[in-house]
């Protein structure tokens, strides 16, 4: 059984970012376990999907590219694009991993994790068991779609299962869910000349107005939507919370909460844009969860309050009302995790001063959540 100081599960944006910082610290007994290959989640994005946060090369002036995960790097510079596709961003992550020679084991599918005598025992499919003092969970969410919601769910398509919107058959498509992924689907299908009906469960489409892009649509999406609405192919219905979808008489009948009979009928399988489940299910018992079971409870170091040595990085990190689901948000907590591990390993953590300047080390969330005056 091989022993490590740090095992990182996942080689996406958060896994590569935290591994790069730990290597900069001088952590040598470390390994990154990736089920497929570096950036595999981004490779699975629909061909037409792009980052909603803009990439711009500002390193020269002391500011990091919003989509960068490593100091001194910029997807805008590496990829020559402002809004990268998933495949392009995966290329950026692979460039980093090769340049920094990160210790990554690809095709390492974690099957089970145990915790005993202050050590994590990680079982890898087809490989030997490894042991680690610290475990960092960076597995993300995209590969865990929240799709099993309706009677006919196995016949429906979740947005994460779409390789390209060109594969969707039919002239009129129903979309369930009006978040970023639902709107992105509507825009791309309309661009292909299809009529789109989008059903959203909120009582008022604009009832939540905040400057937090984790809650509102991004300006990039709003711009694209406004442009596409001119073609009059997208129809919105709010106050339409779908409770079930049934395949009856070769038609997909959509039942809305509060109505006894079906409200909408589609000749083609509706697209479900219902978000994702947590990848933390494998280690869920090592965390305490909030009362709604929607996110795990972490201490000030983004460490499980239940299991010492288990850290969380990436879009699932949350502290009460602070949702750190964008890259430019969760990367600010890399330094927090590295500081905690560095202190435990009695390492020199003086480089954190530079990380703080670059926005990679935010240990006080008290100043977050301030609304713009206009």
List the helices and strands and how they pair.
Elements: E1 2-9, H1 13-25, E2 30-33, H2 40-43, H3 75-79, H4 86-99, E3 104-105, E4 110-116, E5 119-124, E6 130-137, E7 157-158, E8 172-176, H5 180-191, E9 195-199, H6 219-229, E10 234-237, E11 242-248, E12 251-256, E13 264-266, E14 271-272, E15 310-312, E16 318-319, E17 322-323, H7 327-330, H8 334-344, H9 352-357
Helix pairs in contact: 1-8, 5-6
Short précis:
The chain has 374 residues and is of the alpha/beta class. The chain has nine helices and 17 strands.
Describe the structure.
α1 (13-25) crosses α8 and α5 (180-191) packs parallel to α6. The chain starts with a strand and ends in a 17-residue tail after the last helix. With 374 residues, the chain is an alpha/beta fold. The chain has nine helices and 17 strands. Strands 1, 2, 3, 4, 5, 6 and 15 form a seven-stranded mixed beta sheet that branches. Helix content is 21%, strand content 20%. β9 (195-199), α6 (219-229) and β10 (234-237) form a beta-alpha-beta unit. The chain folds into two domains: 2-143 and 276-367, 3-Layer(bba) Sandwich (FAD/NAD(P)-binding domain); 153-272, FAD/NAD(P)-binding domain, CATH 3.50.50.
What are the main properties of this structure?
374 residues, 21% helix, seven-stranded mixed beta sheet, five-stranded parallel beta sheet, alpha/beta, FAD/NAD(P)-binding domain, 9 helices, 2 domains
């Amino acid at each position: 059984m091989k022993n490590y100081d740090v095992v990182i599960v996942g080689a996406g944006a958060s896994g590569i970012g935290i591994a790069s910082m730990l290597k900069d610290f001088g952590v040598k007994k470390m390994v990154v376990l990736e089920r497929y290959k570096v950036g595999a989640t981004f490779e699975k994005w629909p061909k037409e999907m792009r980052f909603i946060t803009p990439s711009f090369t500002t390193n020269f002036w002391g500011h990091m590219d919003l989509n960068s995960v490593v100091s001194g790097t910029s997807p805008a510079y590496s990829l020559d694009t402002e809004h990268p596709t998933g495949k392009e961003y995966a290329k950026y992550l692979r460039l980093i991993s090769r340049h920094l020679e990160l210790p990554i084991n690809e095709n390492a599918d974690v099957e089970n994790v145990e915790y005993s005598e202050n050590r994590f025992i990680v079982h890898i499919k087809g490989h030997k068991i490894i042991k680690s003092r610290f475990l960092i969970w960076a597995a993300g969410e995209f590969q865990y779609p929240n799709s099993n919601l309706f009677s006919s769910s196995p016949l429906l398509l979740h947005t994460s299962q779409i390789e390209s919107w060109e594969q969707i058959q039919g002239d009129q498509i129903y979309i369930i869910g009006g978040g970023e992924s639902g709107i992105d689907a509507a825009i791309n299908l309309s661009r292909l000349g299809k009529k789109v009906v989008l059903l959203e469960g909120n009582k008022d489409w604009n009832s939540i107005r905040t400057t937090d892009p984790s809650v509102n649509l991004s300006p990039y999406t709003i711009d694209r939507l406004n442009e596409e609405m001119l073609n009059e192919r997208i129809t919105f219905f709010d106050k339409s919370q779908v409770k079930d979808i049934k395949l009856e008489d070769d038609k997909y009948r959509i039942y809305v909460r509060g109505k006894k009979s079906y409200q909408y009928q589609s000749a083609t399988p509706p697209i479900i844009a219902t978000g994702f489940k947590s990848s933390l299910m494998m280690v869920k018992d090592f965390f305490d969860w909030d009362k709604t079971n929607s996110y795990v409870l972490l201490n000030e170091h983004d460490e499980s309050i239940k299991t010492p040595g288990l850290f969380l990085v990436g879009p699932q990190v949350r502290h009460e009302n602070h949702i750190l689901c964008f890259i430019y948000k969760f990367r600010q907590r890399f330094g927090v995790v590295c500081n905690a591990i560095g202190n435990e390993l009695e390492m020199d953590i003086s480089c954190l001063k530079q990380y703080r300047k670059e926005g990679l080390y935010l240990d006080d969330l008290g100043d977050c959540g301030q609304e713009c005056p206009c």
